[in-house]
Amino acid sequence: MKFPKIIKENYILILILLLAFILRLISLNQSFWLDETTSGYVARDFNFGQIIKGFAPGDFHPPFYYLLLRGWGLLFGFSEIALRGLSVVLGVGSVWIIYKIAKEMGLKHPELASIILATSGLYIYFSQEARMYILASFLVLLSFLFFVKILKKGRAGDYVGFAISLGLCTMTHYLTLTMIPVYWLIGLINKKDLIWWKKFITSHIIILGFYILWSPLLLKQIKNGLSVSLTAPSWWVILGKTTFKEILLVPVKFTIGRISFDNKIVYALVIVFSLSIFGYLLIKAIKSIKNSLPIFLWLTIPLLLTVVIGFKVSVFSYFRLLFILPAYYLLVAFGLNALNKRKRIIFIILILFINLSTSFIYLTNSKFQREDWRGLTSFIRTNSSSASVVLFPAATGTEAFRYYAPDISYRVKNSVAGYNEVWLMRYAQAIFDPTDSTRKIVENKGYKEVEEKDFNGVGVIRYIKTKSI
Predict the structure, then answer these.
(1) For the segment 313-327, what is each residue's pLDDT rounded down to a tens digit?
(2) Which CATH number belongs to the domain containing residue 437 in this structure?
(3) Per-residue pLDDT at 17
(4) Which of 347, 343, 341 is nearest to 279 (CA)?
(5) Residues 392, 416: contact at Cβ < 8 Å?
(6) How far is CA 424 from CA 262, 436, 451, in A?
(7) Mind listing the pLDDT tens digit for each residue in 170-183?
(8) Strand partners, 94
(9) Which of 7, 39, 98, 288 has a Cα-to-Cα distance from 280 of 20 to 30 A?
């Protein structure tokens, strides 16, 4: 049987892409967590104009992801699997683009970068999530690919591709604006001529035009975002203030994903072992800095800028830096290419062992998966009496509850008079109700705790009325 030439030349890459696709389908039908329900609401219930004028001013992100998700949903539906399908496609697409970048930059084995990204536990996780971070990463990868091409006297189409992809990534996730200094610095280091700079600067017109048009709504977003520091200071810190712990989490999560171990000694050993393998290869890559410098700048400059910004604005968190994760893996691939054949095989086996084992833990253990609002609402619906109410100590979480249970009555910090049964939500209680005052009120009203359940981080206590107070 004869295969087409393109398949014979790219069969390894095709197998890697197939593996990436299969891994991203496993456990895809999880419940949406809180932020994903926001994505689902917007895509399902807002038209394109309402997304920009009605929703975006109160959000913290540019509108492109929501507009794209709306269009995707109209084509494929609005179920969890359907909406996450966009992220799956983008995740697999990222595996293909990183291969193209590695090949364009002269790596002898460009498939190494692809297989690392394809099996990465963290990248798989966000390739299964209906949020904007995987889209931002995909578009940064695409912009970097076009940029590498225009460094080599690219065609007009490469400049257009760079302009569009760079513009779209900054319209998806504000932190991707930190990629702009990366491109400018690489251009300066490569001592590009005046003609190149004219074309390069012209490619920023899309970004400039978007932010001129977007500026009134951007100012509203900034005002609303900064107000959180006053209205919910504990939540403000959790959102992403720069701390030593958050900085350390970046290499840890980039290497082993979102998993952890209850035994702290085991957890520490896993971290040390994994970081030693990846760290050794990073050092190898940095030693050949002449070839890998653009990738090194891609990894470090956005990270450093976000650290600085995070001291003032709560934006610093490893998942918001997903768009620099491919740079991390590209440097690892550079390190692998610097080894002799025998050592390279050993380190490839070690990296795949780390990636596949940590990905397997995430994909098969619900503990490391998302908040189960679907399971919570199903349980309440099945076990509620006719005179029951769900009580939230704060408004946070109500949007996820409404998404899955629009038919179930709920209240926020309100009277429970007239109800024989109260389902007291525990979600974010430590942040928004640190004294547990809502629980004390319920118990003082004569309700007795019957049971407490937890749905992967979404806790609820069931109370039954026993006496009048």
Answers:
(1) 888 999 999 999 999
(2) 3.30.110
(3) 97
(4) 347
(5) no
(6) 28, 11, 11
(7) 999 999 999 999 99
(8) none
(9) 98
Model confidence at 255, pLDDT cuts 50, 70, 90, reads very high
* Together in a domain, 237 and 92: yes
Which amino acid does the sequence have at 357? Answer: S
How far CA 84 is from CA of 7, 56, 93, 132, 452, in Å, comes to 28, 21, 14, 11, 31
CA distance 373 to 32: 7
Range of the domain at 450: 373-465
The residue from 311, 335, 368 where one domain ends is 368
Work out whether strand 421-425 and strand 388-392 pair parallel, antiparallel, or are unpaired. parallel
What's the structural domain count of the chain? 2
Closest alpha carbon to 304 in 324, 326, 287: 324
Q: Are residues 85 and 205 in the same domain?
A: yes
Half-sphere exposure of 388 (CA within 13 A, CB side): 18
Residue 114, both tokens: 């692809």
Rounded to the nearest angstrom, the gap between the alpha carbon of residue 13 and the centroid of all alpha carbons in its chain is 25
Quick one: tokens of 440? Answer: 């004390």
- DSSP assignment string, 147-182: HHHHHT---HHHHHHHHHHHHHHHTT-GGGGGHHHH
Please give the average per-residue pLDDT across 292-297, as a whole number.
94
The answer on 24 and 44 residing in a single domain is yes
> Which residues fall within 8 angstroms of residue 8, CB to CB, at 6 or more apart?
none
Picking from 368, 384, 411, the residue at the C-terminal end of a domain is 368
- Whether 394 and 285 map to the same domain: the answer is no
Sequence-separated contacts (24+) of 74-81 with Cβ below 8 Å: 78/40, 78/43, 78/44, 80/28, 80/29, 80/30, 80/31, 80/32, 80/36, 80/40, 80/130, 81/28, 81/29
- Map residue 396 onto helix, strand or coil: coil
C-alpha 303/C-alpha 298 separation (Å) is: 9
Instruction: Assess whether 364 and 407 both reside in one domain.
Output: no
Q: Both 291 and 361 in a single domain? A: yes
One domain for residues 35 and 60: yes
Contact 84, 28 (CB under 8 A): yes
Q: What is the β-pairing status of strands 410-412 and 388-392?
A: parallel
Please state the pTM of the whole predicted model.
0.93
pLDDT over threshold 90, residue 434: no
Highest mean pLDDT range out of 52-56, 173-177, 240-244? 173-177
The number of residues making up the chain comes to 469
Predicted confidence at residue 229, as pLDDT, reads 61
Of the candidates 302, 310, 305, 326, the residue with the CA atom closest to the CA atom of residue 254: 326
